[in-house]
Amino acid sequence: MVLLFGPPGVGKGTQADLLSKRDKFIKFSTGDMLREEVASKSDLGNEIVDYLNHGALVPDNIISALASQFIEKHKADHILFDGFPRNLNQAQTLTKDLKRLLLSLKVAIEMHLDETEIIERLRNRRYCPQCNKIYNYVTNPPRQEQVCDICKTALVKRNDDDEKVIRKRLDVYEKETRPLVDYYKSHRIYERVEATDSQEEVFKKISHIINAHTD
Ligand code: AP5
């Protein structure tokens, strides 16, 4: 079990996709899961849509219930947590859930990037609402403009990739999620990666850390 955390736009989803394709990880991406609920207009989706659009955290009871179900179902797999946990309460619940199943996290990797670069990456991000593939008009453009390479669906901009909401998400990260650094340091599984390099270079660094903690 491995965890990736870091501010919005740092590249967690991009790396989670690469790790699940190349290293057989099953990813648990709360952001993707919640956006799918919103898109399907389910009861849960209608309940959480405002949190997502305003860059606020969805309540812990909703998130921890989704996580517990996922972990129970995939307890025999290598799970990669992407964007979860987001605060100390979620982290403590995760530790307890894993312990109950005699499992544990091997490493918690924080990805780091300067704020200016984060905003630039998010301004140019588009994603496929069908298969969730992430693009960037500058650093990772689709082959055909505005169309997903894989499923040919029209690419969209996320509602929360508006500059005001990006700043709110950065604030939420500092206040709510940053304390995870000390939490995972105290569990001796914390690692940090600079995310300024290309996707491939960042992938190599993350893979190296994971291998060192799982061999
Ligand atoms: P979530 O979807 O998790 O959003 P986030 O954490 O804000 O992160 P992002 O998805 O914006 O960015 P990322 O780090 O994945 O970067 P990406 O790979 O796309 O959460 C959304 C919302 O859901 C939250 O605000 C909250 O409301 C709710 N939520 C989610 N989890 C929750 C939880 N546990 N508890 C409560 N609420 C929760 O990359 C960004 C861009 O950069 C892309 O265009 C990409 O192509 C590009 N890029 C990536 N890597 C590189 C690189 N190395 N070089 C150049 N460009 C790159």
Present the secondary structure layout.
Elements: E1 2-5, H1 12-22, E2 26-29, H2 30-40, H3 43-54, H4 60-73, E3 79-82, H5 88-100, E4 107-112, H6 115-123, E5 125-127, E6 134-136, H7 163-177, H8 180-186, E7 190-194, H9 199-214
Parallel strand pairs: 1-3, 1-4, 2-3, 4-7
Antiparallel strand pairs: 5-6
Helix pairs in contact: 1-9, 2-3, 4-5
Bound molecules: BIS(adenosine)-5'-pentaphosphate.
BIS(adenosine)-5'-pentaphosphate binds at residues 8-14, 30-31, 34, 51-52, 55-58, 63, 83-86, 90, 121, 124-125, 134-136, 139-140, 160, 169, 195, 198-199, 202.
Q: Could you describe the 3D structure shown?
A:
- The structure is a single chain.
- By secondary structure, the chain is an alpha/beta fold.
- The protein has a single domain (2-113, 176-214), classed as P-loop containing nucleotide triphosphate hydrolases (Rossmann fold), CATH 3.40.50.300.
- The chain is 50% helix and 13% strand.
- It has nine helices and seven strands.
- The protein has helices at 12-22, 30-40, 43-54, 60-73, 88-100, 115-123, 163-177, 180-186, 199-214; strands spanning 2-5, 26-29, 79-82, 107-112, 125-127, 134-136, 190-194.
- The strands form two sheets. Strands 2-3-1-4-7 form a five-stranded parallel sheet, with helices on both faces.
- The radius of gyration is 17 Å and the shape is globular.
- The two termini are 13 Å apart.
- The mean pLDDT is 96.
- The site of BIS(adenosine)-5'-pentaphosphate has 36 residues, from helix 1, helix 2, helix 3, strand 6 and helix 9.
